[in-house]
Amino acid sequence: MKKKVLSILLAGTMVLSMTACGGNSGSDADTSADTAESTETAADTTEAADTAADTTEAADTASDSTASAGAIRLLNGKPEINDQLKELAELYKSETGNEVAIETIGGDTSAGDELKKMYQGDNMPDIFVIEANQAATWDGMLADLAGEEWTDKTGFELVDANMGTIGFPYTVEATALGYNADILSQCDVDPSSLTSPAAWKEACEKIDAKKDELGLTAVFAWCAEPTNLGWSSGTHVFGQYLDAGLKADDTKYIDMLNDGGTIDEARMKDFAEFVGMMNEYADKDHLLVDGTYDEQVAGFKDGKFAFITQGNWCVTSPDDVSFEVGFAPYAFEDGINTIIAGPPSYWVAYKDGNVDAAKAFFNWCAGSSAQDILVNKAGLVSPFDDCEFEATNPFYKSMKSYIDAGNYSGWHTMLKKDGLQNETCQVFADYAKGSIADADEFVSKISAVIKSYYAE
């Protein structure tokens, strides 16, 4: 994607990142103690040795890597690009003689939780992934990457007030409601018209009426299972409440949230009614309440659902699907016409790891050889101004149309209090199960949960 498109994507969000992530200013020793304490409350751990063993088993390559002892380790939180990252590592070795071992955490496992276990087990990788709001968790433990060559090629590096330039942006991502254009066409639904609750309701009724004829399982591939997919409902779907319909630099609702856990109840009710519609037209027999990420994505790719509650990461190659895909907005209020777009997470270098080797790897990743694999094979959208490759991701055309028109919102959900998603996802799950009766009760429950979490 060209610089004129990319350069403004997260202007507001990056400023917020610099502010929101700069709250901790203690010493390295104090920070380490704080992190260890948070680990004990956030992850189910026992003895450090047991934790290290569990972590080794969970990581894709930790137990069977053929990399030499001098290799740096990269913990990847995107299982859908595991094979491409391994190919990247092979190319890196052939071009530089240096090695990087890729360890992948599965789609049903939280990379953040796994990292906390790794920290307790003294098993930290050299490079790992964080979201902007997780920077404070690692205050004092991340390397400053300022002055590296790659920082001159992008405006999307993550900058922290205390630690400096800490985040390498390996991709730009978008999330909204992904759609199967073939299904919509056969049901006479124009995705560009889906900018109001009424339009969405009409579209769902049309598609549902043809469900058997088209061989659909349900209208929405929507999974509110909280244990393994809480990151999806509690971060990405919840993020639509925070940002849908807003310009990229509009921080109204994230500012309210971070001011003691305040929500706009009227907006939240509109959002809850939209989620209720998704519940109604989802696969209630299985996927909605106890499905997995792999089942959700596979069903969409197989043409069993018209919409999916994920982002461009769920379909990365033109070979993944036999139909055109695109994005439609979560239009829970009249006139909402935006998707969320920008870098949702970053690669960072562990300060006590092999920092020089990690820096060299980042510089190489910003170059042509690596970008060829990341863009053309992994289906990522490059954040680098001089990238010569246009994304092959099937969602790219739709992403670009929203971005070019200025119809995109920021990833402000990444700036909420870290860990909130582990609480709000249960409210989504209860709503899906019917334990929460309606939108009013959803608002009441989620408001109480958020207030309580911010009061801790």
Structural notes for this entry:
The protein is of the alpha/beta class. The chain is 44% helix and 11% strand. The protein is built from 19 helices and 13 strands. It has a four-stranded mixed β-sheet. Helix 3 crosses helix 6 (111-120), helix 10 crosses helix 18 (421-433) and helix 18 packs antiparallel against helix 19. The longest helix has 18 residues, at 226-243.
Distance from first to last alpha carbon: 42 Å
User: Which stretches are poorly predicted, pLDDT < 50 over at least 5 residues?
Assistant: 1-67
Shape, principal axes of CA atoms? globular
Helix content class: 40-55%
Rg estimate, integer Å: 21 Å
Largest sheet: 4 strands, mixed
Q: How much β-strand is present in the residues? A: 5-15%
Average of the residue pLDDT scores = 86
Question: What's the arrangement of strands in the largest beta sheet?
Answer: 8-9-7-10
Oligomer: single chain
The number of E-state strands comes to 13
Quickly give the structural class: alpha/beta
Number of helices: 19
Please describe the topology of this protein.
Elements: H1 3-6, H2 11-20, H3 28-42, H4 48-58, E1 72-76, H5 82-96, E2 100-104, H6 111-120, E3 127-130, E4 158-160, E5 164-167, E6 173-175, E7 177-180, H7 181-186, H8 197-209, H9 211-214, E8 218-221, H10 226-243, H11 252-258, H12 265-280, H13 287-290, H14 293-301, E9 305-308, E10 325-328, E11 339-342, E12 346-349, H15 355-365, H16 368-377, H17 396-404, E13 408-409, H18 421-433, H19 439-455
Helix pairs in contact: 3-6, 4-6, 5-16, 10-18, 12-19, 18-19
